[in-house]
Automatic annotation (TrEMBL):
Keyword terms of this UniProt record: Cell membrane, Membrane, Transmembrane, Transmembrane helix
Protein's UniProt name: Polysaccharide transporter, PST family
Subcellular location(s) of the protein: Cell membrane
Main location: membrane
Highest taxon of source: Bacteria
Cellular component terms per the entry's GO annotation: plasma membrane
InterPro entries: PG_synth_SpoVB, Poly_Biosynth_Transport, Polysacc_synth
Annotated organism of origin: Salibacterium halotolerans
Record's keyword annotation contains Transmembrane helix: yes
Membrane topology label: Multi-pass membrane protein
Listed Pfam families: Polysacc_synt
Keyword 4Fe-4S belongs to the record: no
Length: 537
């Protein structure tokens, strides 16, 4: 069994992973949900405007959630945070000053270069929205410091709660601000400014909560400025490089959105689509982004937590346990990613109508669904490599995939439109996932799934797809139309049936052991329910 022999500290880490997973899951739900009323109010052009600046907002918050905190917590554990708390606090403060200098410079640079960036995107009207969104950069240093400090001493709750605070405030503010803008008839660019302002407000709320937590921490120690300055000199290169590299795996979708932001509209306009039509088509393509992000929540959350766990076991010489952690995370990603991809392909049309009022862009959404599997593999394999202190290789593989994505856009978008952009995304991610998997398997850094397990996974997917085909046929017999209510009933019923079937098969076919299921709340509760009914677990 994967978890046998794990000590109390490892149990605490897995419990922390569940806190972070629950917070990230809720955050992804909110991130997907607020885009629905936003698109419904601002239209596809309004969604296009927001998605042009979202990569900047998302990159800032991912480095503050997954990148620099992971780097800081890893350095603290290497220095023995439990045994040397004063040194750990000095390291945290040194990291804060470094990040403040870097992000202050980036904020200033963005303020001056926004007109050039907007023109490069093919839309000069985005200039002021980019400048407004840049304010998020100023909150990254403090958020990263506090999250990293507490993760370094094994406390995941501040990271989880702060993530929820940021997402709740941002989502509510985006909906509220956009509603006011639309009621005043100010148009899609005003809606984009409102969404950017709401994102800044969410980051400020997150920093405010963490400030309260930081001020209330136990055993506050005075630190010497000279010690902090010296620590800055000691860690500056390692910390900044590790932080950026650690965030790279979680930024897979954002990197591709950066590519799309600079290429899709320009290429569509060259295809003879007018400026307004090109922006609307880009908005239709962007409908798939929240669904893809939601589908990779487990992989993202476990990737963030697997890195320090693998480092912890590697530092103690327990290579087998390290490979077991990585193997469990990989199997969980394969299971959830493949099920999500297959399910979304099957019910893409009713989901699209349910969320975005019509079926426009369904073909591109079906193609994008395949990225759910590859993106999860990328996140986990990147985390495994980072856990073994191989920080550069994941970035090289990610860059290779991004190059394939860029080339794919240039070749496919002029011919196939937004379906070409979707296909380029899948091709790029497939290349990165393949290279990353070969690397971790070559170094035996992960315990591979058995052939029997892969066979069971394939059979479970076949059963789910068959059930969804039957369910879809049944709905078509009951009603032939494209009403939003009908689409919602079909999508939600099919999704619920798929989840229940997969949960039952996990237990019946032992896709995960009993001890592994203890770390997965849904399956743990299913085990408890079956046990109460007298079934042997």
């Amino acid at each position: 069994m994967v978890m046998s022999g794990a000590g109390r500290n490892n149990s605490r880490w897995w419990k922390g992973a569940m806190y972070v997973t629950a917070a990230a899951f809720t955050g992804k739900v909110l991130s997907a949900l607020y885009r629905v009323p936003y698109q419904n109010m601002a239209g596809d052009q309004g969604l296009y405007v927001y998605q042009q600046v979202y990569p900047l907002l998302g990159t800032a918050m991912i480095t503050a959630m997954y990148g620099f905190p992971v780097a800081l917590s890893g350095m603290m554990m290497e220095r023995g945070a439990d045994q040397k708390p004063k040194e750990a606090e000095e390291t945290a403060r040194a990291a804060f000053v470094l990040l403040l200098l870097v992000h202050g410079f980036l904020f200033g640079a963005l303020a001056f270069t926004s007109p050039f960036i907007a023109s490069w995107m093919g839309d000069p009207d985005l200039t002021n929205i980019l400048r407004l969104a840049g304010l998020v950069l100023l909150f990254v240093p403090f958020i990263s410091m506090v999250r990293g400090y507490y993760q370094g001493i094994g406390q995941m709750q501040p990271a989880a709660v702060s993530h929820l605070v940021e997402q709740v405030i941002r989502s509510a503010a985006i909906i509220g601000f956009t509603a006011l803008v639309v009621c005043r008839g100010l148009g899609p660019y005003a809606a984009g400014r409102a969404a950017a302002a709401a994102s800044v407000l969410g980051a400020a709320a997150c920093a405010g909560y963490l400030f309260v937590v930081w001020r209330r921490r136990d055993h506050r120690r005075g630190v010497l400025v000279s010690n902090v300055i010296q620590r800055m000199k000691d860690i500056r290169r390692t910390f900044l490089l590790r932080g950026l590299l650690a965030a790279s795996g979680a930024m897979i979708f954002l990197l591709y959105q950066w590519v799309d932001a600079f290429t899709v509209v320009r290429l569509l306009m060259e295809k003879a689509a007018g400026s307004e039509q090109a922006k609307a088509l880009k908005g239709m393509f962007d409908r798939g982004q929240p669904l893809l992000q939601f589908g990779t929540v487990l992989a993202t959350s476990f990737a963030m937590t697997v890195v320090p766990l693998i480092q912890k076991e590697k530092n103690t010489g327990n290579e087998d346990q390290s490979a077991s952690y990585a193997g469990f995370a990989l199997r969980l990603t394969l299971f959830s990613g493949s099920a999500a991809a297959a399910g979304l392909i099957m019910i893409a049309e009713p989901v699209n109508i349910m969320l975005f009022e019509n079926q426009a862009g369904t073909g591109a959404l079906r193609i994008l669904a395949a990225a759910l599997l590859f993106s999860g593999i990328i996140m986990i394999t990147s985390a495994v490599m980072q856990g073994h202190y191989h920080f550069l290789r994941p970035v090289l593989f990610l860059g290779l995939g991004a190059a394939v994505k860029t080339f794919g856009n240039l070749v496919l978008v002029p011919v196939f439109g937004i379906r070409g952009a979707a296909a380029a995304t899948v091709l790029g991610m497939a290349v990165t996932a393949g290279c990353s998997s070969i690397e971790v398997f070559r170094h035996q850094a992960v315990r591979l799934p058995s052939r029997a397990w892969i066979g069971k996974l394939a059979a479970s997917l076949a059963l789910m797809v068959t059930m969804l085909v039957i369910t879809d046929a049944g709905f078509d017999q009951l009603y032939d139309g494209n009403s939003r209510l009908y689409a919602a009933c079909q999508a939600l019923t099919s999704a619920a049936a798929g989840v229940v079937l997969q949960a039952v098969l996990v237990k019946k076919w032992d896709l995960f052991t009993k001890e592994e299921r203890m770390h997965l709340p849904v399956f743990h509760h299913l085990d408890s329910l079956l046990k109460r009914k007298g079934e042997k677990v």
